[in-house]
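Anyone else keep sequences and structure tokens together like this?

Example one:
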Amino acid sequence: MTGEHRATPPRHDPPRHVVVMGVSGAGKTTVARGISDLTGLTFAEADEFHSEANVARMRSGVPLDDDARWPWLRALADWMASRDAEGVSTVLACSALKRSYREVLREGPPTVDFLHLDGTAEIIRERMSQRAGHYMPASLLDSQLAILERFGPGEPGLVLDLALPPAALVSTAVDRLGLLRRDVLAT
């Protein structure tokens, strides 16, 4: 799997699994990589688990439907469960827009922490306009916003304002999720 980045992690007993979620352009990958760098959690980009058909569909500006998403979500849950069985903690950048999608991801490892990067459509559109090389066109943002289900009653999760600088988002997420930092364990 090409999207996986394994660092030398501090030991999290039991393993921890974090999904950094939100619509395209919210900064999921930047924040998830930052969490990985700070904590040693193994990083993966959910977009790299999509089938070629899904990628082609999105490239052409056609939003994915649930039938296209279920196998992808199961593959992500399986990936986290496999890492959990190895004793490896993970951080995954994944849209996870609906509660039902998050439920599928929760079927993988014993526990998953969700971090929702939330903010205004204007900020996200601005970020998407500056992004190069991503197959998800800005035109699909409206379809993602239309299906986004924020955390509902009884659904645990941490929400951070994506308007904060990436370093602040990473540091706040690590602290509020109670993740171990590499530098703390080195002492």
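And example two:
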Amino acid sequence: MLVLTLPSRPAPLRARFAEAGYLPLPDLLTRQGLKALHQEAGRLEAAATRRDFHMECMENSPRHMTTLGGHHIAQESALISTLYRDTGLLALLTALHEVDVLPVQEPVERHVLNILHNPGDTHGAHTDDFPLALVLFIEAPEASTDGGLLEFNPGRRDLGALNEPGARQLHHQAGDAYLLRSDLTAHRVTPLNRPGTRRTVLNFAYTTEDHRTPATNSAHRLYA
């Protein structure tokens, strides 16, 4: 089964990613791939945990969401584990980043499931421990007015930049993906504001051989 439709010419996309630290990858998931991952996420959601707290190490930004960590996913989903290490996907990420991109060995944060499904659900301001995040949309709000938007300020790592001029809010659809330089770009997901709206994503974290940023305890608080 073909799960991904990878861009055949990544070279023109490199400059866009280098400039903003963000690259949209519309329709990265094939129709079959989206259907299979939707079924997989629905099955895994039964084991997910509801989280409602403020993350102290990220300036007390809120977490109102349902999550499942990578250690559970690795045990329960061969499909997601295989997709995470897909050689074609890794080659694409390496071409876009222009540095060899490697799977993360840390089991909790490697690949996670994030579900927003109640009004007010949000993934508050943060940066990630690893340099790259590939976010795959399994479910998404129908319209930007429904909330659940990615918000970031290009080139800004400080969380306060999300409230300053230059911050962007972007809507994505089911089947889309985006690549983010997530350790150097403060980002968050805006709250859902319409009942019945769902935002379900897989977040794949990747690293490089020379990455040395100290890890925080945020991933273990959210997913362990």
